[in-house]
Amino acid sequence: MRHDLTSLRALYDQPFFDLIQQARETYRANWAENEVQLCTLLSIKTGGCSEDCSYCSQSAHYDTGLEKETLLPLPRILETAERARANGSTRFCMGAAWRGVTEHDAKFKSVLETVRAVSKLGMEVCVTLGMLTPEAARQLRAAGVTAYNHNLDTSPEYYPQIVTTHTFDDRLDTIRSVQAAGMSVCCGGIIGMGETETDRLKLLEVLCGFDPAPESVPINCLMPMEGTPLDGQPPVDIFQLVRLIATTRIALPKARVRLSAGRTRLSREGQALCFFAGANSIFYGDKLLTAANPGIDADHALLHELGLGITKPEPLVPA
After folding, report:
1. HSE (side-chain half, CA atoms, 13 Å) at 86
2. Residues designated as active site
3. Would residue 27 count as lying in a domain?
4. Residue 56: Cβ within 10 Å count
5. Exposed, middle or buried, 133 (CB in 10 Å: 0-12/13-18/19+)?
6. Which of 57, 81, 148, 268 could form a disulfide with 64 if both were Cys (CB 3.0 to 4.6 A apart)?
7. pLDDT (tens digit, 9 = 90+) per residue, 126-147?
8. Domain extent for 97
9. What CATH number is given to the structural domain containing 152?
10. Residue 318 forms part of a structural domain
11. Domain annotation covers residue 210
């Protein structure tokens, strides 16, 4: 069933316990194991981005104190990827603070080399490099990228309040290129940027219209970064977050719903509710691009306390 705004609103507005019970039943009907996938995100090129995303400390438009860095060398990336795999991650995502890349960029050739090396470690390889041409998407897929992260952030209507240097349709064009190349789509949004609950459901409505459906949906809670226009925004209400996760689980039953940025602002009990409502993946490690993330030991302890298993990595690819 493809959900529109009306049906999503009907789900979201149910009594809280009815909603999360339905979400839990949907999860159990579609996921055999009661486990969580651990993903690690590494910024391979930090700062100096030309875009003006209001939430981002890496934008060159804002004075956030973040030092601009060049592309990380391959040995350092591989060391981080190997450590992530040893700590239980089955997906390694590499992010670069760029508007986008084309197949003609020298930096793109370096990324392709990195992808080929990381793909031999037996993890899913995800990248987020901004906007892509169709040919760049094809080359990434050939190099071994399994998923491309390209968040839509918020509703089409609210998007111009958050970003002005590109459009919502620009984001959709890249997603079309990714899907045409045969990569899976990792696409979600950020809540707590001043949008309404209806904006969040409108974003979900767009995601429900993807064909094929997104393989994973990251739900990020804003981490207000000093120096950005959204610094000082209050934390997201935990019940609104759980309602959104539950509605996403019901509407996109086969997607991994990723509890992403902002977990440092959630209690252990709040995170437990999110897992019960259908979240089955987290970004894992001490840092999420430039924002703090719960420590590895704290995450292991929480998952153990909840009786949740960890998705096992694939066997290593022989050299």
Report:
1. 6
2. 49, 53, 56, 93, 126, 186, 258
3. no
4. 24
5. middle
6. 57
7. 999 999 999 999 999 999 999 9
8. 5-10+39-306
9. 3.20.20.70
10. no
11. yes
